[in-house]
Amino acid sequence: MTLLHVLDFQLQSQARRTGRTGFTLHVLHIELPHDGDRKMVVKLYEDIKARYPGHSYSSIRLFDDLNQPSNGTTTKMSNGPDIQEEATSNGGHKSYAKLLSSLPSVTSRTDVLHILRMRRTVDFACSNNCEGILWGDSTTRLAEKVLAETAKGRGFSLPWQIADGDSPFGVPFYYPMRDLLKKELVSYTSMITPPVDVLVALDSTTNVAAPVASKDGSIDFLMKQYFESVEEQYPSIVANVVRTTGKLEMKDFSSGRQCALCNMLLANNPTFVNGNSGHDSVTDGPTLELCYGCATAVPPESRHLIPPGLK
Amino acid sequence: MPPSICAVCHANRAVILRPKNHAKLCKLCFIQTFEDEIHDTILSNKLFSHGERIAIGASGGKDSTVLASVLKTLNERHNYGAELLLLSIDEGIKGYRDDSLETVKRNAEQYDMPLTIVGYDELYGWTMDQVVEQVGKKGNCTYCGVFRRQALDRGAAMLGVKHVVTGHNADDVAETVLMNLLRGDLPRLSRATSIITSTPSASDSELTNIRRSKPLKYAYEKEIVLYAHHKKLDYFSTECIYSPEAFRGSARALIKNLERIRPSAILDIVRSGEDMAKLVPGATNDSCGGNCATGGALAVTGEEEGEGGCGSTGGRTAGGDMAQMESQLRNNEAAEAAGLEMEVPSRAPAAEGRNGSSENRKQLPFRREKNAPKQQTMGKCERCGYLSSQAICKACMLLEGLNKSRPRTSIVGVDAMR
Ligand SMILES: [Zn+2]
Ligand SMILES: [Zn+2]
Ligand SMILES: [Zn+2]
């Protein structure tokens, strides 16, 4: 939300100064299955569109509920250039739902849901000839990601997950708000006039007293709680986590092989799992190559549900 | 509910739910599996060579007691041909170490292994109790960590041993990975994940070339406790009375919560740490976190390494204090953002040296080398001969501070002690 506001402002002033703009925005909203009241979500989206006109907008659902009749996965709401979104372009997003519901834990479901959302975003950006994807992650969010991905066995992919620039997807990723704390964003949005607070989706965790981590929680959620509390006392440490992780090098893996689910580049020994590991071997048939993190998240019996890769 | 049957032998009743993967096992199969996995770790990483003399860093705690017991069993079962010795450090902590040393002495008899005890007081002229009396409870883990690392090497040199094994388990390694992410210390993160570390061999000192390895690196703390319990091992179960500092405490709490959410998380963090170690600037491709099939990965360690601290649970690093580091980082930021009151301070990639373990810089009165773990030129400490990137090693620096209030002592040279 903050990102949109700032970019909108920049575009407007650029247009005022020069009569043209250096870039155009395409705002994409991906609706997740658990986003709550659908009407509220759609209203929010429409309100945002009304507040910041002049950009292209799209809203797509990550997938339809399994038990709902599916007639196209796109809610077309574009008032810019018409966006065509073929429901069949990605092998049918029904398989997303099947894959997710087959996963054994909240952690795995949250993990894979985020990956699918990213893939969907990349798909969308590619089919709309976007030159890059801007993510709204704050420093705090990136620090959460660093520790959560580490805990999920995805440490190898961190350089690609938090860096500006090339991504393994062929579309560059940028994190324009990487230097801002979450609490800074919150206070910034509270100062905008006219107020935008009605436009900011309520973060479901923000006002909830931190429950003790239990089996119902996911690793992502645990880290979110953790860094929200660290941010209070130690904001510089939060920023330092992200800065430090940014120093990890993107090693060039000559193999050119990518994980079938998250698309991250695989090292030359992707299938190596220490004999003492709690999981099964990472290889699963000749066609599906998974990274350690995805193999941890998706048990062997669910792997046939992994949707085919991009393009 | 009918009793569960062991998932391995399919005969006996399962009495153990493995913390690592929730497999249901009978007692015998659990013990066998646990030992097999350690054996597998030793083989696949080529930790031992035939006929090697190996010192087990023994604290009397569960980790090193289990390590000694398992190594004795495996040495006989698989004919490693290793000569196993016990090496204990007496930090001089009353009510903690003196009791645990009694346990080690019993272990030495039970396992029929010779025991050597090296004391901080004889090496440094200070017991930890005296150090704490001098510097207070805060920051004393720094002293303990630095002194302990040297003490194990010195003890090994006295015994003429080239290899020391320690009881670090998967929980310890995972904790250190998270802690060093929080502290922003990539070199240390990378060293902590190596299963074998070695001091560079450039120098000919007796104190270099001593290998360290962690055969329990992939073993869960909970399984170590279970193993000790079912084997009825005699161990000492009190934590060090000097508690860990904020970073480690914070990381430890996270690990416990993560394990509850997903049991494999501990190993997953270890794996992430190994993978990230390969991406640390300066790491070479063959530095594969000790996890490559050739086992050829030797991470270079020096005095900077903080592993092997105090306590029955093994590694207690000289942890930085979160608040201290926060204020240090803030000062840096404030300096950068001076005059930009209403603007957000830029956190663009910082100059080298802004990161790193700032607590060292704060406490130590000498300039610290910037992050350059591998290419550091290692020399010898002018005072004690220990491996050091500075003219004076860390332990001697700490001693100098301590001794200001007391008649001068120096570290007893190795040769003098033999
Ligand atoms: Zn993957
Ligand atoms: Zn059995
Ligand atoms: Zn020295």
TrEMBL record, chain A:
One of its GO terms (cellular component) is cytosol. GO terms for biological process: tRNA wobble position uridine thiolation. Residues 68-78 have a biased composition (Polar residues). Pfam families: CTU2. InterPro entries: CTU2 (IPR019407), Rossmann-like_a/b/a_fold (IPR014729). GO terms for molecular function: sulfurtransferase activity; tRNA binding. Residues 68-91 are annotated as: Disordered. Keywords: Cytoplasm, tRNA processing. Gene3D superfamilies: HUPs (3.40.50.620). This is Cytoplasmic tRNA 2-thiolation protein 2. It comes from Rhizodiscina lignyota.
From TrEMBL, chain B:
Pathway: tRNA modification; 5-methoxycarbonylmethyl-2-thiouridine-tRNA biosynthesis. Residues 346-374 are annotated as: Disordered. Residues 54-239 form the tRNA(Ile)-lysidine/2-thiocytidine synthase N-terminal domain. Its EC number is 2.7.7.-. It is found in: Cytoplasm. It is an enzyme of class 2 (transferase). GO terms for biological process: protein urmylation; tRNA wobble position uridine thiolation. Keywords: Cytoplasm, RNA-binding, Transferase, tRNA processing, tRNA-binding. Residues 359-372 have a biased composition (Basic and acidic residues). This is Cytoplasmic tRNA 2-thiolation protein 1. It comes from Rhizodiscina lignyota. The lineage of its organism: Eukaryota, Fungi, Dikarya, Ascomycota, Pezizomycotina.
